[in-house]
Amino acid sequence: MIVVVDERELVTAGFNSLFDREGVACTGFAPGEFDEWVSSAAEDDLRSVSAFLIGDCRDGSVSPRHIRGRTGAPVIALSEQNSLENTLKLFESGVDDVVRKPVHIREILARISAIRRRAETEPDCTEVGRMRIFMDGRDPEIDGQPLPLPRRERRILEFLAANRGRRVTKTQVFNAIYGIFDDEVEENVVESHISKLRKKLRERLGHDPIESKRFLGYRLVL
């Protein structure tokens, strides 16, 4: 899930729509609401955030260092000023990157992946047996051949790969794929997506690489 912070509701709604087209959950906050949320959010909720995008906010109303005190997710500033002074000021505030608007959503996702690689928290791809699972939106490969997947199923496989070796609950998968504030979608939709994903993987691999246990969740078998 991507979290966008901006004083303008039109901006946060716009990013929400653009990320949704890429199959990436996104939620928007006004600066005051965000400060309260990031200070009190549960650890599981924060773990579902893959990056924070900080847009137009009052000076000092959003502190990147405060965010980093609670989570290691990348913090990227969205700048509308073509000014070296402003760019340096943003970096001094503690952000990981500064992106000049307008910018394509895929560039933002690529920058997030690059930051995670540098931090050694997320590699270019994860190899699980005959599977190669990418973290930048590309379809996974099996035996070197792409396996086309719908965006939600692809994101679920990426999330399982990012948490390889650990079991994740249905709620954690839902939060990562749909966001923690999506009340219009039932959490049980995760079971449908995973069922379809497992069928496609089983057809190509000859076995099911996703282990599930009732009440405990899912795990990608290494």
The SSE order reads EHEHHEHEHEHEEEEHHHEE
CATH top level class name of the largest domain = Alpha Beta
According to DSSP, the number of beta strands is: 11
Oligomer: single chain
CATH level-4 homologous superfamily of the largest domain: Response regulator
Helix content: 40-55%
Largest sheet: 5 strands, parallel
CATH topology of the largest domain: Rossmann fold
Instruction: Kindly report the average pLDDT value.
Output: 88
Q: How far apart, in Å, are the first and last alpha carbons?
A: 25 Å
Please count the helical segments: 9
- Total domain units: 2
Into which percentage range does the β-strand content fall? 15-25%
Structural class, from helix and strand content?
alpha/beta
The radius of gyration is: 18 Å
What is the spatial order of strands in the main beta sheet? 2-1-3-4-5
Shape descriptor reads globular
The parts where pLDDT drops under 50 for at least 5 residues are none
Using the 3D structure, state the CATH architecture of the largest domain: 3-Layer(aba) Sandwich
Structure description:
The protein is α/β, with parallel strands linked by helices and 222 residues long. The protein has two domains: 2-118, Rossmann fold (3-Layer(aba) Sandwich); 125-220, Winged helix-like DNA-binding domain superfamily/Winged helix DNA-binding domain (Arc Repressor Mutant, subunit A). It is 42% helix and 18% strand. It has nine helices and eleven strands. The protein has helices at residues 9-21, 31-40, 43-47, 64-68, 84-92, 105-118, 151-162, 170-178, 189-205; strands spanning 2-5, 26-29, 51-54, 75-79, 97-100, 125-128, 131-134, 141-142, 145-146, 210-213, 217-220. The protein has a five-stranded parallel beta sheet, with helices on both faces. Strands 6-7-8-9 form a four-stranded antiparallel beta sheet, covered by helices on one side. α7 (151-162) packs across α9 (189-205).
